[in-house]
Amino acid sequence: MFKWWQRGVLYEIYPRSFQDSNGDGIGDLRGIVDRLDYCASLGVDALWIAPLYPSPMVDFGYDVADHTAIDPVFGTFEDFEALIAGAKARGLRVVLDYVPNHTSDRHPWFEESRASRTSVRRDWYIWHDPAPDGGPPNNWLSQFGGSAWTFDERTGQYYYHAFLEAQPDLNWRNPDVQRAMHDVLRFWMRRGVDGFRVDALWLLIKDDRFRDNPPHPAYRLGEEPPHHSQIPLYTADRPEVHDVIAELRRVVDEFDDRVLIGEIYLPIERLIAYYGADLEGVHLPFNFQLLQTQWHARSIADLIHRYERALPPGGWPNWVLGNHDVSRIATRVGPLQARVAAMLLLTLRGTPTLYYGDELGMSNVEIPRARARDPFEKNVPGLGVGRDPARTPMQWDASERAGFTSGEPWLPVAPDSSVLNVQVESEEPTSMLALYRALLKVRRAQPALSIGRYEPLAMQGDLVAFLRCYENERVLVVLNLGGDPHALSLAGIARSGRLLVSTHMDCNDIAATSDVSLRADEGVIVKLDS
Ligand code: GLC
Fold first, then answer.
1. 108-160 has which fold?
2. 273 CA to centre of ligand 1 in angstroms
3. What pLDDT digit, counting tens, does each position of 387-441 carry?
4. Rounded to whole angstroms, how far apart are CA atoms 376 and 386?
5. C-alpha 62 – ligand 1 centre gap (Å)
6. Which of 123, 404, 427, 441 is spaced 20 to 30 A from 527 at the CA atom?
């Protein structure tokens, strides 16, 4: 009765950075195909691949110029078919990125739309007359800096873009846009895709009265990107978005066993609305809370509690520790706690998403200014908003370019790649990779960890502890988020247990006594005797 996407683990591949097969320094589909054995041996269930579509690459594929083709830099349709076949042969699912909020300004739809005010596609995008002073129609800001409106000389109107000027927003109030974009979903599902991660889902609908966004009272000028100076009341999370999502879901439900995942940066109480009334929204509204919460035991325990409590009946939870838009977990919490974080991610109730390279302990890589590629960094420099540091090449081996490419990599390879890489870590029993493999294996072996109930245990200080229970099986997870050792008595929980995995990877699979002792920065999974 549980779906594959409930039991399974997602693995995000940023295709430019995973494996290059043709020496141009940019990862591609053949590269991913060549590394499918690795993905399967890691123990994940589904690959989510960031956009592969033809694109001017101003936002590295999130500026789509054709939703139903493959960009030559990534390969051909044959390569795509080889990926689907290779994945299926290994029991792996493939989830594609679907980018509905905007297109590239080079998309033929936008070229037609901007050609004249009477174009049949004029209303496919969001056009507005200038304000009386000739300026933008209102105060809406782009997430990548500056006004969200760009003036089009030829037709004398402004068009709206939540992100770059080169990414005009589609008008989802237009039924023709909806139909065309629904067909995109069908196109890929017919070609064997198991589902979609929907980009910028909470932004699809904007206020139809174009009201100004209110200022954000807590904005810290010079410390945060400019768009944080407003509360996005009229540009995000609009009530009508849920009707649009229900339609997307209906299309996805025309096919068996597919998953719809939404990129939604909202607080828990808003996020859960995206499951939809009667669960006809997305299956998994991405839960990004671990990306934003302070790494303190009490905040984490409280977060899990609030999330579990807020979920609608039947709404399946999910957790994300990293993605291509945020700092890597090893940089956010340090290398020791990154191990504890891995255990947390893979033992919480709900579908986990891993970000490529986190399983090696990869950190953010400092990018010299001259090599910066991310348009966010270029438009809003000096605040550390750039996403290049978390998008550097996957580290396969100790060679100069980490086995990623024979050419010049599009972003620098990390300086630690000679020690942190798949080849070296596969030989090292206590490596981060060994830990991830052990965690994924134990999660698969113990249904309690994937589909079991979640029961928190009251803790203090630096400890987070909970039980996962399925039928007669109970698994205890205890995490030490601090630098001092702690002991936890099993009295009142169980007579004894067996230590399955420690994040230190030096004492797995041993009988635990009546106490669980934790070293600094250690997490353990204990199978309790009944
Ligand atoms: C999403 C993507 C991000 C991209 C943006 C605009 O947030 O994850 O990488 O820049 O949408 O498409």
1. Oligo-1,6-glucosidase; domain 2 (3.90.400)
2. 21
3. 999 999 999 999 999 999 999 999 999 999 999 999 999 999 999 999 999 999 9
4. 6
5. 6
6. 427
Range 453-528 classified under CATH 2.60.40.10: no
For β-strands 93-98 and 195-198, DSSP reports them as parallel
Ligand 1 binding pocket mutation candidate from 199, 201, 203, 266 (most atoms within 8 A of CB): 199
Q: Are 281 and 242 in contact (CB under 8 A)?
A: yes
Q: What is the pTM of this model?
A: 0.98
- Enter the tokens of residue 280: 């006809």
Which CATH architecture best describes the domain 7-101+175-438? Alpha-Beta Barrel (3.20)
At 119, give phi and psi (nearest 5°): -55, 145
Fold agreement between 7-101+175-438 and 108-160: no
> What does 321-378 look like in DSSP terms, one character per residue?
S--TTS--HHHHH-HHHHHHHHHHHHHSSSEEEEETTGGGT-------GGG---HHHH
User: What's the token pair of residue 454?
Assistant: 């979640």
Q: Count how many Cα atoms sit within 13 Å of the Cα of residue 474 in the half-sphere of its side chain.
A: 16
Residue range 225-235, pLDDT digits in tens: 999 999 999 99
Indicate if ligand 1 lies below 6 Å from the C-beta of 112: no
Ligand 1 lined by 160 (C-beta under 6 Å) = no
Reply yes or no on whether 176 is catalytic.
Answer: no
